[in-house]
Write a structure and sequence with these properties.
By secondary structure, the protein is α/β, with parallel strands linked by helices. It contains 15 helices and 13 strands. The protein folds into 2 domains: about 230 residues, Alpha-Beta Barrel (TIM Barrel), CATH 3.20.20.70; about 160 residues. Helices cover about 45% and strands about 15% of the residues. Bound molecules: iron/sulfur cluster. Iron/sulfur cluster binds next to helix 1.
Length: about 425
Protein backbone atom coordinates (compact mmCIF):
# COMPACT_ATOMS: atom_id res chain seq x y z
CA UNK A 1 0.00 0.00 0.00
CA UNK A 2 1.34 3.44 -0.89
CA UNK A 3 1.93 5.68 2.09
CA UNK A 4 -0.74 8.14 1.01
CA UNK A 5 -3.30 5.32 0.91
CA UNK A 6 -2.85 4.58 4.60
CA UNK A 7 -6.14 5.41 6.35
CA UNK A 8 -5.72 8.49 8.49
CA UNK A 9 -3.15 10.12 6.21
CA UNK A 10 -4.00 13.43 4.56
CA UNK A 11 -1.48 14.38 1.88
CA UNK A 12 -1.01 17.24 -0.55
CA UNK A 13 -0.71 16.52 -4.29
CA UNK A 14 -0.38 19.31 -6.85
CA UNK A 15 -1.68 21.74 -4.28
CA UNK A 16 -4.76 19.62 -3.55
CA UNK A 17 -5.50 17.69 -0.36
CA UNK A 18 -6.04 13.96 -0.53
CA UNK A 19 -7.77 12.23 2.36
CA UNK A 20 -7.13 8.47 2.65
CA UNK A 21 -10.12 8.10 4.97
CA UNK A 22 -10.62 7.58 8.65
CA UNK A 23 -8.03 5.47 10.40
CA UNK A 24 -9.35 2.35 12.13
CA UNK A 25 -8.67 2.01 15.85
CA UNK A 26 -7.40 -1.48 16.73
CA UNK A 27 -8.18 -2.98 20.13
CA UNK A 28 -5.41 -1.62 22.35
CA UNK A 29 -4.62 -5.04 23.82
CA UNK A 30 -3.68 -6.20 20.30
CA UNK A 31 -0.87 -3.65 19.99
CA UNK A 32 2.69 -4.75 20.81
CA UNK A 33 4.29 -3.08 23.81
CA UNK A 34 6.44 -0.06 22.92
CA UNK A 35 10.12 -0.72 22.21
CA UNK A 36 12.13 0.76 25.06
CA UNK A 37 15.76 -0.10 24.50
CA UNK A 38 17.33 2.95 26.11
CA UNK A 39 18.10 3.29 29.77
CA UNK A 40 15.08 4.56 31.71
CA UNK A 41 15.02 8.21 32.71
CA UNK A 42 15.32 8.91 36.42
CA UNK A 43 13.59 11.20 38.85
CA UNK A 44 15.63 11.51 42.06
CA UNK A 45 17.38 8.32 41.00
CA UNK A 46 14.11 6.40 40.51
CA UNK A 47 13.75 4.89 37.01
CA UNK A 48 10.49 5.99 35.43
CA UNK A 49 8.45 5.15 32.33
CA UNK A 50 5.55 6.88 30.64
CA UNK A 51 2.70 4.61 29.56
CA UNK A 52 -0.94 4.64 28.44
CA UNK A 53 -3.78 2.59 29.87
CA UNK A 54 -6.32 4.16 27.49
CA UNK A 55 -6.65 6.46 24.50
CA UNK A 56 -9.17 9.25 24.05
CA UNK A 57 -11.66 10.47 26.61
CA UNK A 58 -15.34 9.93 27.33
CA UNK A 59 -15.97 13.69 27.62
CA UNK A 60 -16.28 16.21 24.80
CA UNK A 61 -14.92 19.55 25.94
CA UNK A 62 -15.25 22.13 23.16
CA UNK A 63 -11.55 23.08 23.09
CA UNK A 64 -10.08 19.58 23.41
CA UNK A 65 -7.79 18.20 20.70
CA UNK A 66 -7.77 14.78 22.39
CA UNK A 67 -11.48 14.42 21.94
CA UNK A 68 -11.28 15.87 18.39
CA UNK A 69 -8.39 13.57 17.37
CA UNK A 70 -10.10 10.44 18.69
CA UNK A 71 -13.38 11.51 17.11
CA UNK A 72 -11.70 11.77 13.70
CA UNK A 73 -11.03 8.01 13.64
CA UNK A 74 -13.26 5.03 12.91
CA UNK A 75 -14.81 3.55 16.03
CA UNK A 76 -15.37 4.49 19.64
CA UNK A 77 -13.42 7.54 20.69
CA UNK A 78 -12.47 6.13 24.07
CA UNK A 79 -10.53 2.84 24.26
CA UNK A 80 -9.00 1.15 27.27
CA UNK A 81 -6.49 -1.62 27.73
CA UNK A 82 -7.32 -4.47 30.04
CA UNK A 83 -5.66 -4.43 33.48
CA UNK A 84 -3.89 -7.67 32.48
CA UNK A 85 -2.38 -6.04 29.41
CA UNK A 86 -1.29 -2.93 31.34
CA UNK A 87 0.32 -4.96 34.08
CA UNK A 88 2.10 -7.06 31.44
CA UNK A 89 3.88 -3.94 30.20
CA UNK A 90 4.51 -2.66 33.71
CA UNK A 91 6.05 -5.97 34.74
CA UNK A 92 8.37 -5.93 31.75
CA UNK A 93 9.50 -2.40 32.62
CA UNK A 94 9.83 -3.32 36.29
CA UNK A 95 12.08 -6.30 35.61
CA UNK A 96 13.99 -5.24 32.49
CA UNK A 97 14.71 -1.61 33.29
CA UNK A 98 14.05 -1.40 37.02
CA UNK A 99 11.17 1.06 36.56
CA UNK A 100 9.38 1.98 39.76
CA UNK A 101 7.69 5.25 38.77
CA UNK A 102 4.89 4.72 36.23
CA UNK A 103 3.61 7.93 34.67
CA UNK A 104 0.22 7.30 33.07
CA UNK A 105 -0.39 9.73 30.22
CA UNK A 106 -4.03 8.77 29.79
CA UNK A 107 -5.83 12.04 29.29
CA UNK A 108 -8.47 10.69 31.58
CA UNK A 109 -7.76 7.70 33.81
CA UNK A 110 -11.44 6.96 34.50
CA UNK A 111 -14.94 6.34 33.21
CA UNK A 112 -17.82 8.29 34.80
CA UNK A 113 -18.75 5.46 37.17
CA UNK A 114 -17.07 5.11 40.58
CA UNK A 115 -18.15 1.45 40.83
CA UNK A 116 -16.56 0.52 37.49
CA UNK A 117 -13.43 2.48 38.27
CA UNK A 118 -13.05 0.77 41.63
CA UNK A 119 -13.55 -2.62 39.99
CA UNK A 120 -10.92 -1.90 37.31
CA UNK A 121 -8.27 -0.57 39.67
CA UNK A 122 -8.88 -3.22 42.30
CA UNK A 123 -8.12 -5.74 39.56
CA UNK A 124 -4.99 -3.79 38.61
CA UNK A 125 -3.89 -3.77 42.23
CA UNK A 126 -4.48 -7.52 42.62
CA UNK A 127 -2.40 -8.22 39.52
CA UNK A 128 0.42 -5.96 40.69
CA UNK A 129 0.50 -7.50 44.16
CA UNK A 130 0.47 -11.02 42.69
CA UNK A 131 3.73 -10.07 40.95
CA UNK A 132 5.26 -8.51 44.06
CA UNK A 133 5.09 -5.00 42.57
CA UNK A 134 4.19 -3.16 45.75
CA UNK A 135 7.14 -0.74 45.70
CA UNK A 136 6.00 1.42 42.79
CA UNK A 137 4.48 4.86 42.29
CA UNK A 138 1.74 5.93 39.88
CA UNK A 139 0.96 9.31 38.32
CA UNK A 140 -2.44 9.97 36.71
CA UNK A 141 -4.73 12.64 35.21
CA UNK A 142 -8.47 12.99 35.78
CA UNK A 143 -11.61 15.11 35.60
CA UNK A 144 -12.89 16.63 38.85
CA UNK A 145 -16.21 14.76 38.67
CA UNK A 146 -14.35 11.42 38.83
CA UNK A 147 -12.56 12.21 42.08
CA UNK A 148 -14.20 9.77 44.50
CA UNK A 149 -13.14 9.01 48.05
CA UNK A 150 -12.99 5.22 47.96
CA UNK A 151 -11.43 5.17 44.50
CA UNK A 152 -8.68 7.63 45.35
CA UNK A 153 -7.97 5.96 48.69
CA UNK A 154 -7.49 2.75 46.68
CA UNK A 155 -5.14 4.43 44.20
CA UNK A 156 -3.18 6.00 47.02
CA UNK A 157 -2.74 2.57 48.59
CA UNK A 158 -1.31 1.42 45.23
CA UNK A 159 1.31 4.17 45.33
CA UNK A 160 -0.36 7.00 43.42
CA UNK A 161 1.69 10.10 44.21
CA UNK A 162 0.12 12.70 41.97
CA UNK A 163 -3.21 13.39 40.27
CA UNK A 164 -3.44 16.17 37.72
CA UNK A 165 -7.01 17.48 38.01
CA UNK A 166 -8.45 19.21 34.96
CA UNK A 167 -10.15 22.16 36.61
CA UNK A 168 -9.99 24.24 33.39
CA UNK A 169 -12.64 26.76 34.40
CA UNK A 170 -14.59 27.77 37.46
CA UNK A 171 -16.80 30.36 35.78
CA UNK A 172 -20.39 29.57 34.83
CA UNK A 173 -20.02 30.82 31.26
CA UNK A 174 -16.74 28.90 30.89
CA UNK A 175 -18.39 25.67 32.06
CA UNK A 176 -21.12 26.12 29.44
CA UNK A 177 -19.06 27.65 26.62
CA UNK A 178 -16.32 25.02 26.88
CA UNK A 179 -18.85 22.20 27.32
CA UNK A 180 -17.16 20.98 30.47
CA UNK A 181 -20.23 19.26 31.95
CA UNK A 182 -18.68 19.98 35.33
CA UNK A 183 -19.85 22.56 37.86
CA UNK A 184 -17.75 24.89 40.04
CA UNK A 185 -19.03 22.77 42.96
CA UNK A 186 -17.42 19.67 41.35
CA UNK A 187 -14.12 21.54 41.11
CA UNK A 188 -14.22 22.59 44.75
CA UNK A 189 -15.30 19.15 45.98
CA UNK A 190 -12.54 17.38 44.02
CA UNK A 191 -9.72 19.55 45.28
CA UNK A 192 -11.03 19.53 48.87
CA UNK A 193 -11.22 15.71 48.81
CA UNK A 194 -7.69 15.33 47.44
CA UNK A 195 -6.42 17.64 50.17
CA UNK A 196 -8.28 15.62 52.80
CA UNK A 197 -6.76 12.38 51.44
CA UNK A 198 -3.34 14.08 51.41
CA UNK A 199 -2.87 13.38 47.69
CA UNK A 200 -0.69 15.82 45.80
CA UNK A 201 -2.40 17.40 42.80
CA UNK A 202 -1.92 20.27 40.37
CA UNK A 203 -4.27 22.00 37.96
CA UNK A 204 -4.66 24.51 35.15
CA UNK A 205 -7.27 27.24 34.78
CA UNK A 206 -8.46 28.58 31.44
CA UNK A 207 -9.29 32.04 32.70
CA UNK A 208 -9.71 33.20 29.13
CA UNK A 209 -12.12 31.77 26.57
CA UNK A 210 -14.14 33.38 23.78
CA UNK A 211 -17.10 34.19 26.04
CA UNK A 212 -15.16 34.99 29.23
CA UNK A 213 -16.50 37.89 31.28
CA UNK A 214 -14.90 40.20 33.82
CA UNK A 215 -16.99 38.51 36.54
CA UNK A 216 -16.04 35.03 35.31
CA UNK A 217 -12.35 35.96 35.37
CA UNK A 218 -12.87 37.05 38.97
CA UNK A 219 -14.45 33.68 39.85
CA UNK A 220 -11.47 31.88 38.32
CA UNK A 221 -9.08 34.05 40.30
CA UNK A 222 -11.15 33.30 43.41
CA UNK A 223 -10.68 29.55 42.84
CA UNK A 224 -6.94 29.97 42.37
CA UNK A 225 -6.79 32.09 45.52
CA UNK A 226 -8.59 29.42 47.58
CA UNK A 227 -6.02 26.86 46.45
CA UNK A 228 -2.73 28.73 46.32
CA UNK A 229 -1.12 25.89 48.26
CA UNK A 230 -1.52 23.70 45.14
CA UNK A 231 0.74 24.36 42.13
CA UNK A 232 -1.35 25.67 39.24
CA UNK A 233 -1.05 27.47 35.95
CA UNK A 234 -3.47 29.66 33.99
CA UNK A 235 -3.88 30.60 30.34
CA UNK A 236 -6.34 31.02 27.45
CA UNK A 237 -8.39 28.25 25.78
CA UNK A 238 -6.50 27.77 22.50
CA UNK A 239 -8.13 26.67 19.25
CA UNK A 240 -7.12 23.28 17.91
CA UNK A 241 -8.01 21.80 14.53
CA UNK A 242 -11.17 19.71 14.43
CA UNK A 243 -12.57 20.97 17.73
CA UNK A 244 -16.07 22.39 18.23
CA UNK A 245 -14.38 25.61 19.35
CA UNK A 246 -12.77 25.95 15.93
CA UNK A 247 -16.09 25.45 14.09
CA UNK A 248 -18.02 27.79 16.39
CA UNK A 249 -15.50 30.60 16.00
CA UNK A 250 -15.32 30.03 12.24
CA UNK A 251 -19.11 30.18 11.92
CA UNK A 252 -19.15 33.35 13.97
CA UNK A 253 -16.44 34.88 11.77
CA UNK A 254 -14.16 35.24 14.79
CA UNK A 255 -11.41 32.78 13.88
CA UNK A 256 -8.09 34.44 13.05
CA UNK A 257 -4.79 33.11 11.73
CA UNK A 258 -4.43 29.69 10.11
CA UNK A 259 -4.07 26.03 11.04
CA UNK A 260 -0.52 26.65 12.25
CA UNK A 261 -1.90 28.85 15.00
CA UNK A 262 -5.52 29.92 15.29
CA UNK A 263 -6.47 32.92 17.36
CA UNK A 264 -9.52 34.96 18.35
CA UNK A 265 -10.58 37.95 20.37
CA UNK A 266 -12.77 37.60 23.39
CA UNK A 267 -16.23 39.04 23.19
CA UNK A 268 -15.55 41.33 26.13
CA UNK A 269 -12.93 43.96 25.22
CA UNK A 270 -11.98 44.31 28.89
CA UNK A 271 -11.29 40.58 29.22
CA UNK A 272 -9.33 40.72 25.97
CA UNK A 273 -7.26 43.52 27.47
CA UNK A 274 -6.71 41.53 30.66
CA UNK A 275 -5.58 38.56 28.55
CA UNK A 276 -3.08 40.68 26.62
CA UNK A 277 -1.68 42.19 29.80
CA UNK A 278 -1.42 38.73 31.39
CA UNK A 279 0.19 37.21 28.27
CA UNK A 280 2.83 39.96 28.34
CA UNK A 281 3.51 39.96 32.05
CA UNK A 282 3.26 36.24 32.86
CA UNK A 283 4.83 34.72 29.75
CA UNK A 284 8.12 33.81 31.45
CA UNK A 285 6.49 32.58 34.63
CA UNK A 286 3.73 30.47 33.08
CA UNK A 287 5.04 29.17 29.78
CA UNK A 288 8.79 28.64 29.95
CA UNK A 289 9.75 25.09 30.82
CA UNK A 290 11.98 26.53 33.53
CA UNK A 291 9.50 29.23 34.50
CA UNK A 292 8.33 29.47 38.09
CA UNK A 293 4.99 27.74 37.44
CA UNK A 294 6.64 24.61 36.02
CA UNK A 295 9.39 24.57 38.61
CA UNK A 296 6.83 24.87 41.39
CA UNK A 297 5.04 21.81 40.00
CA UNK A 298 8.35 19.97 39.48
CA UNK A 299 9.57 20.68 42.98
CA UNK A 300 6.36 19.47 44.57
CA UNK A 301 6.33 16.39 42.34
CA UNK A 302 9.90 15.52 43.30
CA UNK A 303 8.92 15.99 46.91
CA UNK A 304 6.30 13.27 46.45
CA UNK A 305 8.92 11.00 44.88
CA UNK A 306 11.10 11.70 47.92
CA UNK A 307 8.22 10.91 50.29
CA UNK A 308 7.42 7.64 48.51
CA UNK A 309 10.90 6.28 47.84
CA UNK A 310 13.11 7.93 50.49
CA UNK A 311 10.80 8.28 53.51
CA UNK A 312 13.76 8.65 55.86
CA UNK A 313 14.79 11.84 53.99
CA UNK A 314 11.30 13.34 54.18
CA UNK A 315 9.40 14.84 57.11
CA UNK A 316 6.33 16.98 57.78
CA UNK A 317 8.28 20.11 58.50
CA UNK A 318 10.09 19.90 55.16
CA UNK A 319 6.80 19.20 53.41
CA UNK A 320 5.19 22.27 55.00
CA UNK A 321 8.06 24.44 53.72
CA UNK A 322 7.40 23.28 50.17
CA UNK A 323 3.67 23.90 50.53
CA UNK A 324 4.53 27.34 51.87
CA UNK A 325 6.68 27.95 48.79
CA UNK A 326 3.76 26.98 46.52
CA UNK A 327 1.57 29.34 48.52
CA UNK A 328 3.99 32.20 47.88
CA UNK A 329 4.03 31.44 44.14
CA UNK A 330 0.23 31.20 44.00
CA UNK A 331 -0.35 34.33 46.07
CA UNK A 332 2.11 36.27 43.97
CA UNK A 333 0.30 35.29 40.74
CA UNK A 334 -3.18 35.92 42.12
CA UNK A 335 -2.24 39.28 43.67
CA UNK A 336 -0.74 40.58 40.44
CA UNK A 337 -3.57 39.17 38.33
CA UNK A 338 -6.11 40.85 40.63
CA UNK A 339 -4.27 44.11 40.16
CA UNK A 340 -4.42 43.64 36.37
CA UNK A 341 -8.09 42.65 36.65
CA UNK A 342 -8.91 45.88 38.50
CA UNK A 343 -6.94 47.91 35.96
CA UNK A 344 -8.50 46.24 32.90
CA UNK A 345 -11.96 46.56 34.42
CA UNK A 346 -11.78 50.34 34.80
CA UNK A 347 -9.17 51.86 32.47
CA UNK A 348 -10.29 54.03 29.56
CA UNK A 349 -9.71 51.57 26.68
CA UNK A 350 -8.66 54.36 24.33
CA UNK A 351 -5.64 55.29 26.51
CA UNK A 352 -3.09 53.08 24.76
CA UNK A 353 -0.05 54.74 26.32
CA UNK A 354 -1.34 54.23 29.85
CA UNK A 355 -2.21 50.59 29.09
CA UNK A 356 1.25 49.88 27.66
CA UNK A 357 2.98 51.51 30.62
CA UNK A 358 0.88 49.42 32.99
CA UNK A 359 1.63 46.16 31.13
CA UNK A 360 5.38 46.85 31.13
CA UNK A 361 5.41 47.77 34.80
CA UNK A 362 3.46 44.62 35.68
CA UNK A 363 5.89 42.52 33.60
CA UNK A 364 8.73 44.05 35.62
CA UNK A 365 6.98 43.20 38.88
CA UNK A 366 6.41 39.61 37.78
CA UNK A 367 10.04 39.40 36.58
CA UNK A 368 11.40 40.65 39.92
CA UNK A 369 9.17 38.22 41.78
CA UNK A 370 10.36 35.41 39.45
CA UNK A 371 13.96 36.09 40.42
CA UNK A 372 13.19 35.76 44.12
CA UNK A 373 11.16 32.61 43.60
CA UNK A 374 13.78 31.02 41.33
CA UNK A 375 16.37 31.58 44.02
CA UNK A 376 14.10 29.78 46.48
CA UNK A 377 13.56 26.87 44.07
CA UNK A 378 17.28 26.43 43.75
CA UNK A 379 17.84 26.49 47.50
CA UNK A 380 15.03 24.01 48.11
CA UNK A 381 16.27 21.65 45.39
CA UNK A 382 19.79 21.70 46.79
CA UNK A 383 18.39 20.99 50.23
CA UNK A 384 16.38 18.07 48.85
CA UNK A 385 19.57 16.60 47.41
CA UNK A 386 21.41 17.27 50.62
CA UNK A 387 18.71 15.45 52.61
CA UNK A 388 19.21 12.42 50.40
CA UNK A 389 23.00 12.62 50.43
CA UNK A 390 23.14 12.85 54.26
CA UNK A 391 21.29 9.56 54.46
CA UNK A 392 23.60 7.95 51.93
CA UNK A 393 21.23 8.10 48.94
CA UNK A 394 22.99 9.02 45.69
CA UNK A 395 21.88 9.74 42.18
CA UNK A 396 23.30 7.32 39.64
CA UNK A 397 26.49 8.91 38.28
CA UNK A 398 25.92 10.58 34.90
CA UNK A 399 28.38 10.50 31.99
CA UNK A 400 31.54 12.64 32.26
CA UNK A 401 30.73 16.33 32.06
CA UNK A 402 27.19 15.86 33.40
CA UNK A 403 25.77 18.90 35.15
CA UNK A 404 25.46 19.10 38.92
CA UNK A 405 22.67 16.88 40.26
CA UNK A 406 20.16 19.68 40.77
CA UNK A 407 20.68 20.88 37.20
CA UNK A 408 20.50 17.34 35.87
CA UNK A 409 17.16 16.88 37.57
CA UNK A 410 15.66 20.07 36.22
CA UNK A 411 17.14 19.18 32.84
CA UNK A 412 14.29 16.76 32.39
CA UNK A 413 12.20 19.91 32.03
CA UNK A 414 14.59 20.61 29.12
CA UNK A 415 16.71 23.23 30.79
CA UNK A 416 18.11 24.23 34.14
CA UNK A 417 17.24 26.94 36.59
CA UNK A 418 20.69 28.34 36.96
CA UNK A 419 21.62 28.90 33.37
CA UNK A 420 18.50 30.84 32.53
CA UNK A 421 17.72 32.74 35.70
CA UNK A 422 19.52 35.77 34.35
CA UNK A 423 17.23 35.96 31.32
CA UNK A 424 14.45 36.80 33.71
CA UNK A 425 16.23 40.06 34.53
CA UNK A 426 14.25 42.84 32.94
CA UNK A 427 15.76 46.25 32.26
CA UNK A 428 15.25 48.75 35.06
CA UNK A 429 12.53 51.32 34.45
CA UNK A 430 13.70 54.74 33.24
CA UNK A 431 15.03 56.84 36.09
CA UNK A 432 15.30 53.87 38.48
CA UNK A 433 17.95 54.14 41.16
CA UNK A 434 20.71 51.49 40.91
S1 LIG B 1 -11.94 15.95 30.10
FE1 LIG B 1 -9.90 16.56 29.40
S2 LIG B 1 -9.28 15.01 27.91
FE2 LIG B 1 -11.49 14.80 28.21
S3 LIG B 1 -12.43 15.99 26.57
FE3 LIG B 1 -12.27 17.34 28.38
S4 LIG B 1 -10.28 18.40 28.18
FE4 LIG B 1 -10.29 16.64 26.77
Amino acid sequence: MAWDDVPGVISRHDGKLRNAGKRPLPPLDDLPFPVRDAEARHVLGIPCAPLLGSRGCYADCAFCCIYAYADSAEGARYHRRSPENIVGEMEREYSARGVRLFVFHDDNFFVPSPARNIERYTRLQDLLLARGMDDIALVIKCRPNDVHEELFALLKSMGMIRAYVGIETNSDEGVVGLNRRISPADNQRAVALLKRLDIYCSFNVLIFDPEATVEGAERNLGFMERHVDIPFNFCRAEVYAGTPLESILREQGRLRGNYLGWGYSMRSPRVELLFRIAATAFHGRNFKSDGVANLNMGLRFDNEVLRRFYPDAWDDQWHRRLVEFSRRVGNSSVTMMRDAHAFAGTVDLSRHGEIKRYAIELARRVGRSNLDLLREVKVLRLEMEDRMARLGHRWPAGPPGSPAPWAAETARLTTSVGSTASTEQLPAPPGAQP
